[in-house]
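Entry 12.
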Amino acid sequence: MKKSHNQLNDFPKEQVRSAIQHGIAQAEAQISNTMNSEHSYKVKNGKRKILYAICSVAAVFGILVCSSYYSPALASSLSKIPIIGSVFGDSNLIGLQQAQKNGLTSEIGETQEINGISVTLDEILYDQNNITIGYIIESEKELGEFYFNAGADFTINGELPNGSSGGYSEDIQSPTTRTAIQDITVTEDMPNAFELGLILHGVNGETWYFSTSIKQITDIRKVPIQHSENVDGINLTVTELSISETGVSISYESSEEGTDFELSRAGDIEFLMVDQAGNEITSHSGGVTGKRLKNRLVFKSNKQFDPINSNVTDLTITPYLALPTGGGGVEFDENGEPRELEFKGDSLQPVVFESFKVKITQ
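Predicted 3D structure (tokens):
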């Protein structure tokens, strides 16, 4: 058995400090809401309450630290309490980790609570044409799976973008606490800075609204490519490679004759990327937008990859088809009405594309 002083030395001081700051922020937010709803002559009492809240938080953690010194059982219990720092910093995505570490994210920290469910807009990264959003979600009661569906709807300067795609994933910290990351890929031209609006819906009809100004990171290198090929009726044009501290992205457009999205292969294109030494650059895929133009289906996307090292001089890129093995989808008509699409992809056949090289100038 370890001695008690070793337990204290191993105690995560930085995590405790982060938790204290988080508790203080919550207390200040609660008091601020109280002050806003009360008359001005109660402001002085409100300030006093803030001091009490801070002292209370500090006292609680003081008790916990001392108790853990004497009680290994309590120390074990404390290790199971989720202490959340940065959503991006704690993620397993190298690009998000580097963005948070190097100060490239916009730290928001705005919290809204509805029906005992607190949603915090933690931080946002805007690089290339991609917007990544981190949330912290805390609830008084356990939340079911897919409680927030596929993430937030969004606007750019108050308007819906013409073409966008993306994904949403959650990391369960405890039965009542989770973090979430939403990735939005916009295929149209984007301004360098804009007002981002977010509307998050809960399954019981709750709606959380956020609005914040964001700005694109600098030092993005764009390498024009214009690689085109036509394979078995699929037209593919890779237009550009973008490189930044947070990752690499490939912009492309593909098309194919037809009117049925479920029978099209042009929207199932992915890329294998390796450097001059044969090291594979990890792909994180990326959403695809598609539309009908007369008798053709046209797709656009920005595929995402991990950041590359400064010693990379060449990249070899190989397109390939990642054909679906199941599922379906949703199609929206000109009025925005959804229609379920049945899965028909089991009849699709693979094709082989040509590889091409991109020279990286440092």
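Annotation: The chain has a mean pLDDT of 75. The chain has three domains: 4-78, 94-215, 221-359.
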